[in-house]
Amino acid sequence: MSHSHGNGDHAHHVSSPFTLVLVLVILMILTALTFIAYFVEIWISEAFGVYIPQWVNVLVAMSIATVKGTLVLMYFMHLRHDNQLNTVILVSCVAAFAIFLGFTGLDLGNRGTIFAWKDGPIIEGGTSVGSLREIEVIGADGETSVRGITSGVSVAQFAKDPTIAGAVLGSKHYEKLVKKHDAEHGYHDHNSSSEHSRPRTGLTAGLFAAEAPVQAGHGHGDHGGDDHSEAESH
Amino acid sequence: MATIDPASNERPALAKREPLWKTYKHGHHWPDAEAEFDAAKIGMWLFLSTEILLFAGMFCAYAIFRMKYPEAFVNGSHYLDWRFGAINTAVLLGSSFTAAYCVRNAQLNNQLWLKINLAITFLAGAAFLAIKFIFEYGPKWADGKRPGELFSYPFAENAHEPIWWGVYYGATGLHASHVIIGMGLFVWVFINASRGKYGPKHYTLVENVALYWHLVDLIWIFLFPLLYLIH
């Protein structure tokens, strides 16, 4: 595109009558085709007793509409001979449109799979107590049993159960993990509960120390203010 | 500098004045008329994008409710007469053609046909609205085929038909409001065109108003099969 100065003339594309008329004729034919497709669908389903799913109707109509829309954009709205930035703007907009509709569709289309999970109890903080996780457990007596729905505890607590852990990870690997954990942390209380884990902010030195574990919200031996923490530390 | 002689009966030579499009000066903050034209058009495309996203809300509402209540949409669509949809589609496509021709007429300084095509486009918009209101909105509203709580049609076959009418009136109403705005814009351009404001050197508004009208057409291209052609 040439840049004119002051009184210079524009070098803009002028649509030829032939192009404009041809585009109009094609648009009219495609409109007729949309209706023909509609009546052909009805005829097929009635003459042959076939059930045609809704998406066929939508897909056919929207495909023709997309061709028509593209013709309008390219020739009536001059995008074909225009500053390409305008096309970039339009395509970005259509992409946003697709994300909007696409994610809404994903959401609605998958409500069915999520509702079963949502039926379970909802615990604040999301501990997956209602998880549908089921595993086969081979007991010490060699009997196989299925433990499921995390037996009413959180997933973390469920995994803590030595029977479960042994079954999931393999008993040998589990034994190794226990030894490694004891060696690294020097502290392993099999009976502690992950349901009552201490709230903490950031990395707290000595949090897992066997003797005198750090109290929630307090550092090691500093700013011992309130009576409660004093009583605990003694 | 010319002075007016009160004794003279001679009228100033208005007829010989250059047409406004020839004397048009671009904004002083633009390097040239081309830059001004391009910027105005980019601005228009940005605006059209927001318009598409506005209608995306309607299309999304349509998708949600059709996925949830497909039977209500089949029922609802059968209340519409496809022939009115077909006529209105042809009217809008034709008006889009004349709108595109307006730009060509301005570019080639064909002042008479510029005005004729502007008028035809305006009248096509009026015809579209007339068909919509006289043959569609009016009788349907009178029968009680109304959206949501206003629904009072006594022969409904599906509990969710009020939702269908909500989507129908919402989508077509938003579209019709754009037709009304577009018609107003064409009146504005027509008045300017009669004053000789548009020609080969300057036709920014003709171009942008035509773009707006094409967008209205574009939305309808997608809207009408979704509303009229469900079975």
- Total helical segments of chain A: 8
* Topology order of chain B in helix (H) and strand (E) letters: HHHHHHH
pLDDT below 50 for ≥5 consecutive residues: which ranges of chain B? none
Helix % of chain B is: over 70%
How many helices of chain B? The count is: 7
Residue fraction in strands of chain B: under 5%
Average pLDDT level of chain B: 91
> For the terminal residues of chain B, how far apart are their CA atoms?
75 Å
Oligomer: heterodimer
The structure class of chain A reads mainly alpha
Proportion of beta-strand residues of chain A: under 5%
Greatest interface by residues involved? A-B, 58 and 53 residues
Helix content of chain A: 40-55%
| Overall form of chain B | elongated
* Number of beta-strand segments of chain A: 2
Would you mind describing this structure in some detail?
- The complex is a heterodimer of chains A (234) and B (231).
- Chain A is mostly helical and 234 residues long.
- Helices cover 53% and strands 4% of the residues of chain A.
- Chain A contains eight helices and two strands.
- Chain A has a two-stranded antiparallel sheet with strand order 1-2.
- In chain A, a hairpin with a 5-residue loop joins strand 1 and strand 2 (144-148).
- In chain A, helix 1 (17-47) packs antiparallel against helix 2 (54-76) and helix 6 (162-169) crosses helix 7.
- The longest helix of chain A has 31 residues, at 17-47.
- The radius of gyration of chain A is 34 Å and the shape is elongated.
- The termini of chain A are far apart.
- The mean pLDDT of chain B is 91.
- The termini of chain B are far apart.
- Chain B has seven helices and no strands.
- Chain B has helices spanning 20-23, 33-68, 70-78, 82-107, 111-143, 161-194, 204-228.
- The longest helix of chain B has 36 residues, at 33-68.
- Chain B is an all-alpha fold and 231 residues long.
